[in-house]
Specification:
Layout: H1 4-10, H2 17-26, E1 33-36, H3 62-72, E2 78-81, H4 93-102, E3 106-111, H5 121-127, E4 130-134, H6 141-156, E5 162-169, H7 174-187, E6 191-196, H8 205-211, E7 220-222, H9 225-229, E8 244-247, E9 252-254, E10 268-269, H10 275-279, H11 282-290, H12 299-302, H13 305-316
Parallel strand pairs: 1-2, 1-8, 2-3, 3-4, 4-5, 5-6, 6-7
Antiparallel strand pairs: 8-9, 9-10
Helix pairs in contact: 3-4, 5-6, 7-8
Amino acid sequence: MVEFDKVLSRNKIYAHPERLIEWMKTGITLPITVEIDPTNKCNLNCPNCTGNRTFPDAELSYTDMKTIIDKISCFIKGIVFTGGGEPLINPHTQKAIRYAHKKQISIGLITNGSLVHTVNLKQLVSSCEWIRISINKENTKKIFENISKLVKTRNQHATKCDIGVAHLTSGEGKKELEKLAKEAKSLGVDYIQFRPYHHVNNNIIERIEEVKNLETENFKVIYPKGKYEKKNFKYKQAFADEFRFVVNATGDIYPDCFTRGLPGFSYGNLLEQPFEEIWNSKRRRKILECKLQQKNCPEQCKQDELNQLLWLMHCSKEESEHKNFV
């Protein structure tokens, strides 16, 4: 059974019920969150990483990112700077983060941690609401040193930035998971998150639960239960895409991180078109209506709990004619 209150909370819909109400009434609303890919370039070759699907050298200039932020800042509530590639390879990413933060937008950063030492850490932890560092079994000593410096800077300046690490699992045993969790805990981060690779059928929930004995008041072990269990949620359209989108390193808008860069999924280019023109277009509507029927749309998106909840809300409209009767 889906815990609907938790699903709404972690997707920021609780904080902005007016968007949900508007969508329920009209079938469309302005989105709440966006992912921006500053660059498709990466300096690591992580095992099993699919990498960027198209334009591996694409990169947004500061002017590009400023233009994007200006076009969406009047309605967007949260921006995640991610990739694509490694966002901190782009020398303008931190400046763009600061610019968006000054516009009172909540900021998150997903990074591989290898270049954290090259930026102003005080500014970074002051501008970001949260920072998540992706780690794997082959991470270098330097990356862990960078994470430790980031945490110490956060603590020193008493900012409220949540710092965590994430690891994509591929069937690890308890000892491997425990080792990673202990390393993360020793760095002083707030949590370690385990997630499965797309299309990988490895339910290791029992092993992760055994690692949760490392939890304290200040350190948590978290994981997306639904993605591991691969529940078969039945819905015909991914309505979560009405509340989020991705802007990749070419300025193109995509429904979500799974479809980023895939042919046929771009709504339009935000550097070339007004946002409203793209968002209200027949092209976007057609892409969303057909998205789940595409062969290359990953199964894990179809098991998204938020999509299940929104589908139930959508269906409830058809049953609400006699609203005074149970």
